[in-house]
Every structure is written in structure tokens, then in C-alpha cells.
Amino acid sequence: MKFGFLMREIGQGLSRNVSMIVSIILVTFLSLTFVGTAGLLQAQIGQMKTYWYDKAQVAIYLCTDTSPADACPQGEASSDVKATVEAALKDAALTPFVERYYFEDHQAAYDKFQEQFADNAVAKYVKKEQLNETYWVKVKDPNKSAVIVESFTGVAGVEEVRDQRSYLDQIFSILNAASIAAVGIAAIMLASAVLLISTTIRLSAFSRRREIGIMRLVGASNFYIQLPFILEGVVAATIGSVLASGAVVAIVVFFVQGYLAQRLPLTSFVGVDDALLLMPLIIGSGVVLAAIASGFAIRRYLKI
Amino acid sequence: MISFSNVTKQHKGAPKPALDAVSLEIERGDFVFLVGASGSGKSTLLRLMLREEIASRGDLFVLGQNLVTIPSRKVPALRRKMGVVFQDFRLLPNKTVFQNVAFSLEVIGKSSAYIADAVPEVLRLVGLEEKADRLPNELSGGEQQRVALARAIVNKPDLLLADEPTGNLDPATSAGIVSLLEKINQNGTTIVMATHDVGIVDRLKRRVIELRGGVIVRDDKKSGYETALPITDQVPISSDTEPEQGNEPEQANEPEQGNEPESRISSTDQAEEQE
């Protein structure tokens, strides 16, 4: 196959259907940007999980006099209760799961509360007896925190056992839903991109039916006849996917790093390196999709 | 070279087969005319040889390949050994004469050095070396058909199929095209030409195969166009084929090509004048 001939054929095809080619570029650009955004969200979720799950602890809240009666019929947890909990945490059954734990008494809880709500009126009214004494348990494997939760839930004198992860999981499930929505939109747009590519290729083949007829008669191989058309779709989709990966990098640089990270300095966000990792994925899927779509279209349209 | 044995082509939905159990042999270097009314099966015969269509029944060998069983991927290689010209020339309007001929070599992957040699040579053969840079619409019909011929033979085919190549041309121009075909034939290329041109067939005195209703009714060496009448009565198949087509080939010919009797007469005259 001669390169010059091929380039000329592709160039002719592209210039003949400029508006269709532009629409292929736009549709692949938008759909792959959505794919990339979904990828960024997943990367963000992953990053937040490793960051926050690592800090997440299981809190064993002991009863106070002001606790609801159905959870704490005996009122304030006695020292017996504390001894039972402490013994259980040191027991061989739980030590494989527990990395470390510490006890937070009324005074410590009160100090922490005052610090957290320093500007809030509620800080003035709260009494330290109202705040739970708490065993903070750091688990070795965040995925097995349920063991701790189950071991202490319902134990007399324990008001509630709470895995901090459950708060985080709500955030993650929102982010997850957002990324699934992005993937869903991307899937619909990719489907329309595929249809658009195959329509364009058919149109292109139709406008060149004279040439194709002669090529077949003089014995050009199928491959030779079809390759310019397939590459035509691939070139257009490649331009679209390069634009999309550029857009994904731009989203990270200008929105995530330039805006979100400035507003929420304590949260870790995806960086440009994550976006660069997504780049070959975006471009690759654009190229493969276009090759399959146009190859399929031309094969159906051109039979020997 | 070409061998049909009991080849039948039945198109889907058609009541009668386009070709019905046709058998014929064409040797290397032959120059064969296919004559017959429209719908008699000439074009189907050519399309079968090109493997544009596949025979429904029977065996068909062209250039050593069985065209009934040949896999699609081998068809391009077969077609490279054949050339085709049509009544409507089928040139690419946006390419010059040179580019039109070069295109057929480019798409089968010939080097540009080869193309730079082969194209001027074949244009000289057809007498168009002066007009290599013209576009097809700047040429006369005869010149356009010469370009089409140049394109068909530039790859030095063993077999040239011509489907009414003079159908759109005036008699003098037709004679020029035919003498070019004879020259090509003398260089060893087998030629099968479907035609309605009485003058040409009568003048050349070559092998004539006449089709009627998908059946060969005549296969004569060194014959003319009109001798069909007495022979058709002797051939048993023809008597029961198609009465509605009429036994007179002239009648059957009239409606289709605009080949009026006057033009036929003049074509004979013109052809003789040329000689």
C-alpha cells in the first residue's frame, strides 16, 4: 500500500464530508470527555477511600445519664462496663483486628467538643456529663470493622457502636452515583457516535461509488478499497478523543486543582498525573471504537 | 481460457433464468462477438466471467480459476488479469486522462516509477499521448472510450471484456475503437465483445456467439451479424424458446439501443470507407 495514495484518499474523503466529520469529532469529544470524567470521579473516590478509611475509627459510645432509656436502662456506664469492654478489646478473639484503641472520658470529650464548636452557642450549654465516654478503636483492616461493631452492639452499658466509615460511605455512594450517571450518558453518546461514524462512512462510500466500482473491476483488494474509509473514521475519532483527553486534563488543572483544592485545602484531590493516566485509555477507546464502527459499516456496504 | 459447461444463472424472483445451461469454450487469443437482443443474456455472460455474479448451476472456468468455487479473497487477483470496458466509459470525471489510467495501477499497488512508464506507453498505443492532461468532459466520446480502453489494458490483461463498447459512438469512431481492439487482440489478449453493431461484426468476420432468451442459438467461426435467421430454424432449442421475442433479430434489436436501421446501414458504409 502506497502511503501517498492512502493519504490523498483520506484527505479527499475528509474534505468531502466536512460537516459530518466535524460532527463525529464533536460527538466523540463530548462522549469521551464524559468517560474521562467518570474515570476521574472513580480515581477521586479511590483516593479519598485510602485517605479517609485510613483515619476512620470505630467509636464505642458508653451510656450516660442522658442517654435514651431503651439503649441504656441503667444510666451512666459503670466502671464494670468499662472493664468488660476493655477486657474484650484485649481478648485474643479481637486483637487480630484491633490496631490500637484509647479511652476518651467525659473531660476529654468535653475539651474536644469545646474545640470543635468554639464559635457555636451550643458549646456554652453542653455539660460534660452529657457527652459520651468513648472507646476509639483503630482497626487494622477497615473492611473488617464490622467485627468490632457486632462485638459491642447491645452490650450492657454501651449506647451505640458507630463505624465512622458509614459516614464516609454515604459520600462515596453519592460520588459513585455521579460517576455511574456520567458513564451512562457517555454510553448513550458513544452509541450515537458509532451510528454517526457508520452513517458518515456509508455516505462517503456512496459519494465515491464510481471510484470504488473501478477499483473493484481492476482488482484492487478489499483491504485496499476499505482502508481509506476506515482510516477516515479513525482520524476523525482520534481528533475527538485527543480533544477529550485535553479537556479531562483541563478539568483537573483548572477546576479540581485550581478551584476545589483551593476551597477545600484539607481534602486530597486527583492530580494531573491521574488525568494523564486516563489519556491513553480515552484515545485508545476512541480509536478502537471508530475502527470497529467504520469497518463494520464499510463491510456491510461494500461487498465484492 | 474460458469454459462454460451447462452454466445456468437464475436471478432471484425472475420467472426464467438469464442464462440457461450455456456451454462454450473460448481459446487464448480468440476475438469473439456476443450478439443478441437486449435481455438475451449477453451482459449476464460477461458479468459471470467478471465474477460480478455467480452461476447458479454448472461449471465456469476463466483463466484457470473455477469462478463458482473461487473464494472472494482471490477474486481481486483474478480481475487483475482481466480488463473491462463499458458502453458508458466509466471514467472518473475529476481526474485527467493520465490520472484515470494511473488510478487503476495505483489501487493495485504498483510503484509510481512503473506508473510513470506504463501510462504514457498505453496512451501512445490508444493515440492519446497528446491529451494526457485533459479531463474526460473535454474529450469526445471516442476519445473517452480510448481512455477506458487504455485503463483496461494498462495492466496487460490476458482477457479483455467489452460490453457494447461502441454503443454510444458514431460509426466512424466505432471503427477506430474496433481497429484498436484488433491491435490489442494481435498482441495476444483474448477479447470477448458484446455488441449490437452489425457493421463491425460483419466486417471483422470473427467468431460470433448469438444468444436468445439465455440460450446460445448460434456459434459460428468467421461469421456476420445477420446469418442467424436460417440457422435458428435448424437449432431445436431456439424454436421453443421465446416466440414473443420474434425470430427476426432485427426486430428484437430495434427497441433498445436507438440503433435505427439507417444508422446501421450508415455504419456499414462508414466502416467500409475507413478501409
What's the topology here?
The complex is a heterodimer of chains A (304) and B (275).
Chain A: H1 3-16, H2 18-55, E1 58-62, H3 79-90, E2 98-104, H4 106-116, H5 122-125, E3 134-139, H6 145-152, E4 158-163, H7 165-207, H8 209-217, H9 222-263, H10 272-301
Antiparallel strand pairs in A: 1-3, 1-4, 2-3
Helix pairs in contact in A: 1-9, 2-7, 2-9, 2-10, 7-9, 7-10, 9-10
Chain B: E1 2-9, E2 19-26, E3 31-35, H1 42-50, E4 57-62, E5 65-66, H2 75-79, E6 82-86, H3 97-106, H4 112-125, H5 141-153, E7 159-163, H6 171-186, E8 190-194, H7 198-204, E9 207-212, E10 215-220, H8 228-234, H9 236-239, H10 249-257, H11 261-274
Parallel strand pairs in B: 3-8, 3-9, 6-7, 7-8
Antiparallel strand pairs in B: 1-2, 1-4, 4-5, 9-10
- State the oligomer: heterodimer
Which protein chains make the most extensive interface, counting residues with beta carbons within 8 Å of the other chain's beta carbons?
A-B, 19 and 24 residues
Low-confidence segments of chain B: 230-275
The overall average pLDDT of chain A, rounded, is 85
Report the order of strands and helices of chain B. Answer: EEEHEEHEHHHEHEHEEHHHH
Give the integer mean of the pLDDT values of chain B.
83
Count of domains of chain B: 2
How big a fraction of the residues of chain B is strand? 15-25%
Q: What is the strand content of chain A? A: 5-15%
What is the count of distinct domains of chain A? 2
Order of helices and strands of chain A: HHEHEHHEHEHHHH
Question: What distance separates the N and C termini of chain A?
Answer: 19 Å
Characterize the largest beta sheet of chain A: strand count, sense, and whether it forms a barrel: 4 strands, antiparallel
User: How many alpha or pi helices of chain A?
Assistant: 10
Q: Helix count of chain B?
A: 11
Helical fraction of chain B? 25-40%
**Rounded Rg of chain B:** 19 Å
Structural class of chain B: alpha/beta
- Tell me the number of strands of chain B: 10
Kindly report how far apart the N and C termini of chain B lie: 32 Å
CATH A-level architecture of the largest domain in chain B: 3-Layer(aba) Sandwich
